Amino acid sequence: AYWKEEPSFRQVIPMIEQPEVFVVPHFISEGYFTREIIPRELGLTGKTTLRNSRQFHYCDPVGIHPSMTTLLLEKATDLLPDGISRAETALIIAGHGTKLNKNSAEAIKTQVEKLRAADSNFAEIAASYMEEEPLLSDWKKIVDAPHVVVIPFFISDGLHTVEDIPGLLGIEKLSPERKTVYQFKNRSLQYDSALGNDSRIVEIVFHQVDRFIEQNLSSHS
């Protein structure tokens, strides 16, 4: 179900026949849409809502699942070219950021803290944003390592990840090759596609359902 496409959130309800429904927001973080729009459009009043003898369980968005930290680390490591180690590489988690909603950047800050605590051996790990400091356009000042990997913490590719962020990073022409190394004088940079493009996100959707059952439906069979 979609907000601006069909089937819409409201249209999808009559399409479902099962008596029990798990709703998993395919969003990168908590915010206006996950806390207000989706519950309003689906008529959800809490963790579990009873509607016409059917149960609707509202799970957490995929972006705040604990395994997202592992996924970020694996993607960043896979991106490194031969001969370049984590110890000489800075990892930047890129987001939109906005002063209008503090939750927009909160998920990324949380991931950066977890990555730092995980002793990942990257030289530096930092968060950077399109519209909030520290700005992506200042990436050369944010980290000092000779090699930099940037992973967009977005649910899918679009205008921001394909055009806006590469432009802010100084990439004149984005290569379709994932492991392309962009040179900036004595420093190099690699840029990945949106985190949500990874096929392992499908597993996280199901894991969010499992987590909901464990935390809220312990007697569920």
What does this protein structure show overall?
Helices cover 33% and strands 18% of the residues. The radius of gyration is 19 Å and the shape is elongated. It starts with 8 loop residues before the first helix and ends in a 5-residue tail after the last helix. With 221 residues, it is an alpha/beta fold. Strands 5-4-6-8-7 form a five-stranded mixed β-sheet, with helices on both faces. A three-stranded mixed β-sheet has the order 1-3-2, with no helix packed on it. The mean pLDDT is 92. The longest helix has 16 residues, at 201-216. The chain has seven helices and eight strands. Helix 3 crosses helix 4.
Rounded mean pLDDT is 92
How is the biggest beta sheet arranged? 5 strands, mixed
User: What value does the Rg take, in angstroms?
Assistant: 19 Å
Content of β-strand: 15-25%
Secondary-structure element pattern, one letter each: HEHEEHEHEHEHEEH
- Give the N-terminus to C-terminus distance in angstroms: 27 Å
Uncertain stretches: none
Number of helices: 7
